Amino acid sequence: MQAVRDEIDREDAVLFASYVWSATAWLLLATAVGLLLSFKFPYPDLATSPYLSFGRLRAIHTNGTFYGWASIALTGVALAVAARTSGVAVRPKWAAWAALILYDLAALCGTITLDLGINYGDQEYREWVWWVRLLFAAAVALAGYVAVATVAARRERAIYISNWYDIGGFVFTVILALVALPPWYQYGMGQVAVQGYYMHNAVGMWFTFLALGAAYYVLPKGLNRPIYSYALGVLGFWTNLVFYPLIGAHHFEFSPLPWWFQTIAIVFSVGMLVPVWAGSGNFFLTMRGRWSLIRRSYALPFIVVGIAYYFLGSTQGTVEALRSVQALLHFTNFVIGHSHATMYGFITFIAWGAIYALLPRATGREPNPIAVGVHFWFALIGVTGYVLALSVAGVEQGLRWAAGDPFIASVEAADPYWVARAVFGTMMFTAHVVFAYNVFTMTRRAPDARVPETALAGETAP
Amino acid sequence: MSMHRGFGNPWVLVLVCALVYGALSFLTGILPGIAFSRIPPTPGLRPYTAAERRGRDVYVAEGCAYCHSQNVRPFQEDRVFGRPSVAGDYAYDTPELLGDHRNGPDLTDIGARQPSAVWQYIHLYEPRALVSASIMPAYPWLFRVKPTAAPGDVVVPVPSPWGPRHGVVVATARARDLVTYLLSLKQVPLPTSSAPPGGVTP
């Protein structure tokens, strides 16, 4: 019996490690691209080649980090959490593997086609041509099926809150990808409206849900106490579901989209404070009195930073949506700072925390604590400096434009901050290399390789 | 814990999520998509010619819209880029290129603001030959360096020291299409001035 259980554990460990390795490879590639892009601002004649040009690599950076790194990492975490909270193995295995292969295939084909200048239009996060996005949608659908089938096999009566968020995220994203796919109802301003819906929902109905699902598991587990309030978690789930789909048009304020359409987006952007503060408040209240535990965990520092950036970045998003703020900051680098505060400070830190929490338990191999510390501090200082530099640059740009200066004055004003961004970006990329080393130490086979017996010990919700 | 009991079967959760999000997606994605696709063109706006359309494809393939918006807001500060954009201006613009960043200036009316084809060619070959502080990428792959120009070639007079040491710079078909597109970007005047002179101040 024990031998059979060990075999199941080993299969789950290999599956999870494969997700983490795929995600890590995309993280390295997509952020190496991002680093090159950051140096092209101070050195625009660096690497002048069609295949290394800004216009093509920018989409490779964003899609690679979104759909290569974050999607694969958080899907791997979601499936591992579904199995652990249900006290069963991930099932069916073929679908979990097929999802991973489709994710990788989509990211690979997407990267190659974008580099050849083949895209759907310069529309953020849906630049991939239709068949590549279909591959991605199929991967999400398959992974969602695995999550549901695994949760359906649980022994507990209740579905743990993490699985709400994860299953929801899979369902929403399949719908989102399919709605955005057919071109036959999207022309001119109609396409602008769909783009506003798509680009923001891709962030808030996919990454936010999966990252919160991960945090709702890793945080209580690491603190060894239940989450402060399930009710707040459920409130956050429903309000995020209802408010988020309505806010996309705030990317096109003062555009020719109807004024009322923009106003609805702004109203619900303010409404987003409810799920954001409910969620982050819930996490911080769970931390009460246990802050000292952070120092003894690989995972908790990352989770705490992720929650802090969730609170700060999302609240900032609400403020940015206000018309008076948009008038100054729209079109500026401030927006790029915001997107890194959220996709990196929030989403990526949560993904790292979850990997550091779950991977050693699956493989029985611990990372080097000093290397984890280097990863943490380089990434934290890097992203915080990055966000600050671009926020200041964005305000500078906005003020120059408002003052009626010639356009090039805004470029010259932002230039020193772009240099700073490249330096902080180098720190971030260094952190990723160290992270890859840590994944290596957590997954390499030791001479006395053995799987921990606790890995499948009918574990229930924390 | 009572709130969880309703979803003993995870497929019920899937169904509820799909229904709620499907309805919201219809309201906020599909319906506006259909409705705003039917906005008629601004009077006087003409469809793109074949060459302009090909040039627009080059613009999309090279990702120009990541740094150049085509969306003039009703602000005083945007007056330099043209009159405020109206929905009908985009009737022929699929894929849409409104953009959401301005690392470079807005190009809605660039054909009127910078009507010189020679300027556009030199600027695409090496932006810093014309604007020393520019951070725009150079696009030398849209040009070819030949020993001598053949009849019919569009020769680009790149000022030294930015040009090649020997030979002449000739625009490829893709560069010619792109410049044709850029020069076609001219706003049509609105039939009645709906915007107050000077626009509104934010």
Q: Which of globular, elongated, flat, extended, rod-shaped describes the shape of chain B? A: elongated
- Tally of separate helices of chain B: 6
Structural class of chain B: mainly alpha
CATH superfamily of the largest domain in chain B: Cytochrome c-like domain
Largest interface: A-B, 91 and 79 residues
Q: Sheet bearing the most strands of chain A, described? A: none
Radius of gyration of chain A: 22 Å
Per CATH, the superfamily of chain A is Cytochrome c oxidase-like, subunit I domain
Order of helical and strand elements of chain B: HHHHHEEEH
What does this structure look like?
The complex is a heterodimer of chains A (462) and B (202). By secondary structure, chain A is mainly α. Chain A has a single domain, classed as Cytochrome c oxidase-like, subunit I domain (Cytochrome C Oxidase, Chain A, Up-down Bundle), CATH 1.20.210. Helix content of chain A is 75%, strand content 0%. Chain A contains 14 helices and no strands. Chain A has helices spanning 2-40, 54-86, 93-115, 130-152, 161-180, 189-223, 230-243, 259-271, 273-287, 299-321, 323-329, 334-363, 369-402, 407-443. In chain A, helix 2 (54-86) packs antiparallel against helix 3 (93-115), helix 2 (54-86) packs parallel to helix 4 (130-152) and helix 6 (189-223) packs antiparallel against helix 10. The radius of gyration of chain A is 22 Å and the shape is globular. Residues 452-462 of chain A have low confidence and may be disordered. Chain B is mostly helical and 202 residues long. Chain B folds into two domains: 2-37; 50-184, Orthogonal Bundle (Cytochrome Bc1 Complex, Chain D, domain 2), CATH 1.10.760.10. In chain B, 34% of the residues lie in helices and 5% in strands. In chain B, helix 3 crosses helix 6 (173-184) and helix 5 (117-125) packs across helix 6. The relative contact order of chain B is 0.16. The chains are: A mainly alpha (462), B mainly alpha (202). Chains A and B meet through helix 2, helix 4, helix 5, helix 6 and helix 7 of A and helix 1 and helix 2 of B.
